[in-house]
């Protein structure tokens, strides 16, 4: 279990970072999504891994429980990263449609002639 | 509980959706609501400032849940000062945006603007690390909308870079918080301070990793070299009022560094000894140098000022990185100054760019050349740190605070030479734009009718008034330098004695 979760976080983060270093917006956005998946799983694991345990304290019996706080954090992080991904897709689309290129680099030629969009 | 504490967050949060949903087709109503809430936030933060003046730490428990289980807002001198600074800056910029019709050039300017204010105020007030992340996201998502306000290909491209960079920062922030939570089991800042101090010094590998990742995140926000790449393009391409508002955004990063590395990972803490200062100081000095060189080399006005902002962040973080009460006080004074100075220059630059384009080349003189030149001159000497404006005092305080440091000669040399280079760069730009225009030998490029009209268009009164408001702020900061630096010193003392903060947050009687 630990090895599975740890390698999942590691592989997703590595893939995410690799994709973010690309020059086109589409792989970069994919990379960002990968990275947020990686961080979500990582956050989930910060409350220690427990299988089949409820996130509720039981005051009548000493049963195992899992930390509920990371689950709340993950939920918040998922919502935020979902919203952010939507925003970055829209802005990237806007950039692509207005400049006809999805290169993440800015074209320096336009600066040199002093053109202002 | 004092409900005024949440007002700076709540008021923009209520008005922003109202503007977006109810009044979006009525520009006048939108402006009235937006300006009214900006004024109200200024009044509320000033009231909070008066309350925080005597050094009490006030705690607001959201939902009446006790810390560390619920989220708390905490008001101390530092929070109050940053909130007031944000509120005043927001009001001035709001006036400028209304007066110059920037808010009409795209949709939803005012609601995004208010959401951004909500995020910034929240980030300054919160006493919970995860809540800080949430407020960072609020202010970032609003800033994404604002950077691409009014559209245009280059603005969109700069926007993509800005968004990607900050999303990366947000992911790193989550990794950092996760790591710290895994070690300490809490995310309340006061509780973290207690738990971190209890950790045995030989078992701190994970904690140190978390602390360094947090530092990196805040350095991204503060545009510290080598994490500054997002700043020049996005500030230069963003609409002018937005760029001016962003002058406070970099300060959020500096604030977070100051807060976390005095309260939680304090300078005396064995577990994280030497994490902050040793790395931060050289990086801050390199940032200062790079910013100064950027000012000298910039070929367009927006970038020139963006690099000026980077240089001033370098000076600010140099003071922060010393981690002594005296240096922190200098940093706080310089924060107020550099926010006003950078915002002023962005607004003046907008007046220039609207008339003759961003490129620094000689062109025919524009309307009100003298007035705009005078404003640019004030902004330039403020940013470069020349007497008699407050930048000089700020830099003096920073240099004085560095006096006892081992690297004092390097720090002084970098600050002084950096100032000189900045002055050169600003003087070059100013002469070309404002004086070369009158040079008889200058052949103005053939301007078409539209450009001709733009050049001779005098500025409407309101933006000029707003700009003069910032000048007044700088002058007041100079005239009342004594009381202001006394307040900054008191703030720094409070920061370096976090016991009161911790006790108030964790032991509040119901």
UniProtKB/TrEMBL annotation, chain A:
Keyword set, alphabetical order? Cell membrane, Membrane, Transmembrane, Transmembrane helix
Q: Which residues cross the membrane?
A: 6-21, 28-51, 71-97
**Has the keyword Transmembrane been applied to this entry?**
yes
Give any Pfam family that matches. Oxidored_q2
- Localized where? Cell membrane
Its placement in the membrane is given as: Multi-pass membrane protein
GO cellular component terms, A-Z: plasma membrane
- Name the family: Belongs to the CPA3 antiporters (TC 2.A.63) subunit C family.
Could you identify this protein by its name? Na+/H+ antiporter subunit C
| Organism (species) | Tritonibacter litoralis
From TrEMBL, chain B:
User: What's any one GO cellular component for it?
Assistant: plasma membrane
Biological role = NDH-1 shuttles electrons from NADH, via FMN and iron-sulfur (Fe-S) centers, to quinones in the respiratory chain. The immediate electron acceptor for the enzyme in this species is believed to be ubiquinone. Couples the redox reaction to proton translocation (for every two electrons transferred, four hydrogen ions are translocated across the cytoplasmic membrane), and thus conserves the redox energy in a proton gradient.
Return one Gene Ontology term, BP aspect.
ATP synthesis coupled electron transport
Chain ranges of the NADH:quinone oxidoreductase/Mrp antiporter transmembrane domain: 128-415
Q: Which GO terms describe its molecular function?
A: NADH dehydrogenase (ubiquinone) activity
For this protein, the record's InterPro entries field holds:
CPA3_Na-H_Antiporter_D, NADH_UbQ_OxRdtase, ND/Mrp_TM
UniProt-annotated location(s): Cell membrane; Membrane
Q: Where would you find the membrane-spanning parts of this chain?
A: 6-23, 32-53, 78-97, 109-126, 132-151, 163-185, 205-231, 243-267, 279-297, 304-324, 330-349, 370-389, 409-427, 461-481
Does the keyword Transmembrane helix belong to this entry? yes
Q: Name one Pfam family in it.
A: Proton_antipo_M
Which keywords has UniProt assigned to this entry? Cell membrane, Membrane, Transmembrane, Transmembrane helix
- Organism's domain of life? Bacteria
Protein's UniProt name: Monovalent cation/H+ antiporter subunit D
Q: Give the coiled coil ranges.
A: none
- How would you describe this protein's topology in the membrane? Multi-pass membrane protein
Name the protein family.
Belongs to the CPA3 antiporters (TC 2.A.63) subunit D family.
* Repressor listed as a keyword: no
In which broad location class does this protein mainly occur, judging by the first location in its UniProt entry?
membrane
């Amino acid at each position: 279990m630990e090895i599975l979760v740890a390698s999942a976080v590691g592989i997703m983060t590595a893939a995410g970072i690799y994709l973010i270093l690309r020059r086109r917006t589409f792989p970069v956005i994919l990379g960002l999504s990968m990275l947020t998946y990686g961080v979500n799983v990582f956050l989930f694991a910060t409350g220690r891994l427990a299988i089949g345990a409820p996130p509720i304290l039981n005051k009548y019996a000493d049963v195992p429980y899992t930390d509920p706080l990371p689950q709340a954090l993950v939920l918040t992080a998922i919502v935020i990263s979902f919203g952010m991904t939507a925003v970055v897709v829209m802005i990237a689309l806007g950039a692509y449609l207005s400049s006809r290129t999805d290169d993440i680099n800015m074209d320096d030629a336009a600066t040199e002639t002093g053109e202002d969009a | 509980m004092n409900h005024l504490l949440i007002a700076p967050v709540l008021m923009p949060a209520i008005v922003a959706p109202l503007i977006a949903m109810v009044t979006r087709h009525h520009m006048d109503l939108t402006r009235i609501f937006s300006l009214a809430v900006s004024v109200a936030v200024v009044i509320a933060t000033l009231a909070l400032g008066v309350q925080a003046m005597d050094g009490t730490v006030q705690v607001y428990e959201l939902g009446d849940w006790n810390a560390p289980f619920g989220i708390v807002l905490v008001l101390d001198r530092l929070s109050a000062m940053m909130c007031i600074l944000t509120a005043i800056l927001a009001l001035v910029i709001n006036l400028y945006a209304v007066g110059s019709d920037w808010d009409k050039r795209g949709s939803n300017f005012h609601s995004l603007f208010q959401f951004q204010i909500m995020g910034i105020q929240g980030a300054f007030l919160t006493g919970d690390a995860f809540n800080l992340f949430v407020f960072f996201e609020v202010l970032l998502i609003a800033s994404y909308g604002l950077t691409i306000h009014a559209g245009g290909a280059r603005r969109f491209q700069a926007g993509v870079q800005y968004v990607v960079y900050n999303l990366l920062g947000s992911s790193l922030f989550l990794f950092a918080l996760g790591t710290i939570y895994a070690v300490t089991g809490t995310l309340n800042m006061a509780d973290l301070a207690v738990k971190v101090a209890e950790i045995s010094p030989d078992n701190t590998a994970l904690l140190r990793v978390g602390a360094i990742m947090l530092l990196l995140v805040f350095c991204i926000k503060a545009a510290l070299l080598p994490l500054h790449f997002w700043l020049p393009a996005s500030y230069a391409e963003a609409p002018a009022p937005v760029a001016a508002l962003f002058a406070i955004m970099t300060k959020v990063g500096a604030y977070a560094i100051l807060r976390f590395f005095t309260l939680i990972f304090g300078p005396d803490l064995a577990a994280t000894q030497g994490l902050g200062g040793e790395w931060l100081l050289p990086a801050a000095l390199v940032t200062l140098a790079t910013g100064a060189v950027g000012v000298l080399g910039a070929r367009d006005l927006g970038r020139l000022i963006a690099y000026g902002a980077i240089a001033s962040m370098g000076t600010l973080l140099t003071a922060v990185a010393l981690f002594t009460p005296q240096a922190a006080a200098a940093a706080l004074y310089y924060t107020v100054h550099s926010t006003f100075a950078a915002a002023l220059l962005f607004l003046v630059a907008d007046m220039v760019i609207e008339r003759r384009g961003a490129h620094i080349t000689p062109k025919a003189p524009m309307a009100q050349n003298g007035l705009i030149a005078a404003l640019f001159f004030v902004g330039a000497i403020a940013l470069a740190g020349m007497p008699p404006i407050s930048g000089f005092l700020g830099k003096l305080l920073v240099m004085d605070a560095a006096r006892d440091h081992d690297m004092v000669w390097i720090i002084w040399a970098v600050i002084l030479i950096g100032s000189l280079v900045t002055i050169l760069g600003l003087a070059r730009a100013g002469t070309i734009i404002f004086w070369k225009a009158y040079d008889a030998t200058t052949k103005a490029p053939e301007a078409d009718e539209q450009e001709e009209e733009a050049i001779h268009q005098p500025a409407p009164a309101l933006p000029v008034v707003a700009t003069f408001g910032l000048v007044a702020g700088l002058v007041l900061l100079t005239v009342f330098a004594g009381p202001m630096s006394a307040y900054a010193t008191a703030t720094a003392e409070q920061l370096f004695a976090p016991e009161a903060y911790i006790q108030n947050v964790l032991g509040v009687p119901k």
